Amino acid sequence: MSTGTEERPVSGMGDLLLNAEALYRELLRGVRHWPTPQTQLVGITSGGAWLAQRLQKDLNWPQEPGVISSAMHRDDFAQRGLSAGGQTVLPFDVNGADIIVLDDVLYTGRTIRAVLNELFDFGRPASVRLAVLVDRGGRELPIQADFAAVRIALPATQLLALARDEAGRFSFHVEGQ
Questions:
Q1: What is the pLDDT of residue 72?
Q2: Fold entry, domain 2-176
Q3: How many CA atoms lie within 13 A of 85 on its CB side?
Q4: Got the DSSP string for 9-68?
Q5: pTM metric for this prediction
Q6: How far apart are CA 146 and CA 12, in angstroms?
Q7: Closest Cα partner for 50 from 30, 69, 67?
Q8: How many CB atoms are closer than 10 A to CB 111?
Q9: 3-class SS at 147?
Q10: Continuous segment of H or E residues that includes residue 174
Q11: What is the pLDDT of residue 55?
Q12: Per-residue model confidence (pLDDT) at position 76
């Protein structure tokens, strides 16, 4: 796995200073050479979808990115239910495609597992790569990103989420203690 910056421990909410725009630029540099004519961008709702939309524009990529939801394949579906974040929309044939899955934060790996199950419901891609802004560790499943703009340590009691303002600029919000 390649990372854009070195791993930095984060001890508390007040200490966490992540520049989401700088991390996006690092992600853009990291995946700039990945696309081929068979490549399709797929963002996980909602933060990953925002990343896919912006990458598509910044890479001058002709195909619209797909949006994928993990809701139907979550192992905690009974507790979470369907999120209002959106449904899966893949405006291309998954069969034989090289898929780049984008997400804002990689944590336990359960969302990625669910997204892979959802993706394979639509067909059989030639390959799937994962790019994330933040890898926060804490994996419960053997899943890793092919590219992470940054790796941090964050207490399990804290939630890190990407936000987007009206101008399309990214920032992070931390919730919890």
A1: 83
A2: Rossmann fold (3.40.50)
A3: 19
A4: E--SGGG----HHHHHHHHHHHHTT---TTEEEEEETTHHHHHHHHHHHHTT-SSPPEEE
A5: 0.87
A6: 27
A7: 67
A8: 22
A9: strand
A10: strand 170-176
A11: 97
A12: 60
What's the N-to-C CA distance of the chain in angstroms?
Answer: 29
Q: How are beta strands 158-164 and 170-176 bridged, if at all?
A: antiparallel
Quote the tokens at residue 150: 């940054």
Are residues 131 and 27 in contact, defined by beta-carbon separation less than 8 angstroms?
yes
- pLDDT value of position 17: 74
Single-letter residue type at 169: R
- Report the Cα 76 to chain-centroid distance in Å: 19
* Residue 16 confidence (pLDDT): 55
Using CA of residue 168, residue 84, residue 95, residue 116, what is the dihedral sign? positive
**pLDDT value for 164:** 95
- The type of residue at 6 is E
97: enclosing H helix or E strand: none
Core vs surface per residue 32-48: b (16+ CB within 10 A) or e: eeebeeebbbbbbbbbb
Residue ranges of the chain whose pLDDT lies below 50: 1-14, 78, 80-81
Strand partners, 140: none
Contact predicate 162/177, CB 8 Å: no
Report pLDDT for 3: 47
Q: What is the dihedral of CA 51, 18, 164, 176, to 10 degrees?
A: 110
